Amino acid sequence: MGDITELHGRRNKILGAGSPLFYSKPLHLVRGEGVSLFDAEGRRYTDMYNNVASVGHCHPHVVEAISRQVATLNVHSRYLHEGIVEYAERLMGRHHDGIECAILTCSGTEANEVALLMARQATNGRGIICTNAAYHGNSAAVRALTRLSTEVISKTAEVRAVSFPDTYRFVGDDPCSYYLEELDQTIQSFRRDNVPFAGMLVCSIFANEGLPNVPKEYLSKAAEIVHAAGGLLICDEVQSGLCRTGKWWGYQDMGVLPDIVTMGKPIGAGVPLAGVAASGELVEKFRSETRYFNTFAASPLQAAAGNAVLDVIENEGIQSSVLAVGEKLLCDLQEIQPQFEQMGDVRGVGLFIGIEWVLDQTTKEPDVEGAMKMVEALKEKGFLISHAGAHRNMLKIRPPLVFQHTDSAAFLEAFNETLRELYG
Amino acid sequence: MGDITELHGRRNKILGAGSPLFYSKPLHLVRGEGVSLFDAEGRRYTDMYNNVASVGHCHPHVVEAISRQVATLNVHSRYLHEGIVEYAERLMGRHHDGIECAILTCSGTEANEVALLMARQATNGRGIICTNAAYHGNSAAVRALTRLSTEVISKTAEVRAVSFPDTYRFVGDDPCSYYLEELDQTIQSFRRDNVPFAGMLVCSIFANEGLPNVPKEYLSKAAEIVHAAGGLLICDEVQSGLCRTGKWWGYQDMGVLPDIVTMGKPIGAGVPLAGVAASGELVEKFRSETRYFNTFAASPLQAAAGNAVLDVIENEGIQSSVLAVGEKLLCDLQEIQPQFEQMGDVRGVGLFIGIEWVLDQTTKEPDVEGAMKMVEALKEKGFLISHAGAHRNMLKIRPPLVFQHTDSAAFLEAFNETLRELYG
């Protein structure tokens, strides 16, 4: 443990003590393989948090593709390169017909920067709507969409928030109409204040908001409202995309066809890779008006990593496995729920499951402390999860997509044991 | 050539025809090694443009380090990891004493986003000064610094430009005082308009501006003026850093100690890696106010690539080679200059050389078309350069740092030959 203390101290000094770390006693990781992560003392953990390594840590096919490419060629995108064209073609082939053309970037932040500008250029608008518990990245323009209050405090505000569809806490009969009405009101507030409307940017499954059970028609009807007001719908697929939900994209779960999609996290297996896609018309307009260029993006390295990830998903039955393992895990957790007052709501899709930790199932009062205790206790038992959501009280269970039934069974045992120990 | 046409067509369709490409007949590259790039037909080119592969394309030590790391572990930065701490320590060890602490990002754009916010937080200011021919990245906040007019068109403008120190075209006796006076006036314009001043962001060697011969004391005196007004000096080392100039950082050539530095391009050898560094105080303030986190940054992969690049620079005598080869090439080009009216000015530092292409050495009228012809003709002879600068008429010669005297001699022969063919 002396090593950890020393390393932690050096890290505080050179990266800043404010550089975020998980867990009260941070993990010193040295190796990864499949759903396993190993610390410096050789202890194995089951990773149930990381979505970047979605095809598993250090997948041999991905490792081989990256290694081969960096030994062959890695340059910027102002030369022709087969790999990057092939990658963009394969990626576009997985989207709905209106998504034809891609702009690659290095991060989800950069992708959302492009998406916002693209929507504003295409509509000659400025007004963007996000949700009140959103996170889409860390640049100035994108950070403006982070956990914004629904209260509009300035008539010139170009970003305004609507409440996310929080069906767990909604009181009333018709959450869908309620939340759509709020969207409509917010668009009208832009009109009233002479801020021309550009569009709505949301995570397709509202992951940071807490992965709510979204009313079936909410997003498709929201798209209609946005379109009727002259805006575009941008779906942020950074968390929901690439088979996380068991479908290729979260927007397919929601039954909606976005105008612009942004992608990131899992698509490069840890090589910084993200992107924006839209119709050819939208992309060409953006390109001609900005001459967008990104030094590290659309590189042979990004292409090699991206193509290798697609290979694994296509060749290893990932999609059906996600559906089967995810559904079983969700059902098993829902079965436990009635026994524990703390498990306010168990919900999710594919291999993305959230459990709202509450003090009381009737009042639904969020229990952040309890959620954090569960996270720490499960880590001690060798299972890595986190907590998130609008109230930060949701256990966030999001393993690599190669997570299997056996991993799930082991987790359930540890989960039950932890519950008994903490609440037994 | 049928393959190139087909690939180009597919690229236009899937990435957009507006996705930038070099050369009237684009290059289809398939392999790189050292300073050599090879096209699909096996033709070899000497790379005299790429600064990302600064230690040479596909350097075996870098390839091995990246391959080993992706096979071992690659996760986000909220776990302890030896590699990233070591990398930040080594990088900080190369900076002046006031630069103590680093924040890693995926791109120069992201690094400059952080730097702008850091300066604004630290000073409680908003006003940023850049030059009138700058480029620091492609996000909304950073793009606002791109080729901005020196004319202030709005009293609320938070970004204002000063003329870059263009000593080649300056008419008068004392360019240094002239340009400093303009800086002072611009700071006063912020004061007059009640826009609190935050600082100045410049490329240490004004690379995009055209790599001017900066008056010896310009930047150190600019720093004094900026500091006296309560602002911070941010040096963008994305192009000038990591021994490009023969010194570790361009600011060392300029004799100035910046408060914040940003780094990018060469530091990861093509793995998207960039960063910001400043005093511990500035970084901690930024971290505590933003809880900045970047999914792909400060990863074991970035660390492996970054450390390997530092290894090569330290172990292979890169720095002294850059100085020797760069100086000889500059002298050789300056020797040719008097024979050709088109070579308006030959200048540079280390392995970064610019030649202003002009119609007439007296009027100094920029000859963009001529510069483009030189670029195309040299490509046909197997040498890859580009054109840039405030007037886009500067031949931009910026080979990987492993460029040798023999490469230089071969280039000079081709350069002379091209001049004779085009202007002979």
CATH topology of the largest domain in chain A: Aspartate Aminotransferase, domain 2
Global structural class of chain A: alpha/beta
Q: Per the principal axes of the C-alpha atoms, what is the gross shape of chain A?
A: globular
Find the biggest chain interface.
A-B, 91 and 91 residues
Strand order in the largest sheet of chain A: 4-10-9-8-7-5-6
> Kindly, what is the distance between the CA atoms of the first and last residues of chain A, rounded to a whole number of angstroms?
31 Å
Mean pLDDT of chain A: 97
Characterize the largest beta sheet of chain A: strand count, sense, and whether it forms a barrel.
7 strands, mixed
> What's the number of domains of chain A?
2
CATH superfamily of the largest domain in chain A: Type I PLP-dependent aspartate aminotransferase-like (Major domain)
Helix content of chain A: 40-55%
Q: Can you characterise this structure?
A:
Chain A folds into two domains: about 1-55 and about 315-424, Aspartate Aminotransferase, domain 1 (Alpha-Beta Complex), CATH 3.90.1150; about 60-315, 3-Layer(aba) Sandwich (Aspartate Aminotransferase, domain 2), CATH 3.40.640. Chain A is of the alpha/beta class and about 425 residues long. Helix content of chain A is about 40%, strand content about 15%. Chain A has 13 helices and 15 strands. The radius of gyration of chain A is 22 Å and the shape is globular. In chain A, β14 (about 385-390) and β15 (about 395) form a beta hairpin. In chain A, strands 4-10-9-8-7-5-6 form a seven-stranded mixed sheet, sandwiched between helices. Chain A has a four-stranded mixed sheet with strand order 1-2-3-13. Chain A has a four-stranded antiparallel sheet with strand order 11-12-15-14, covered by helices on one side. The interface between A and B is large, with 91 and 91 residues.
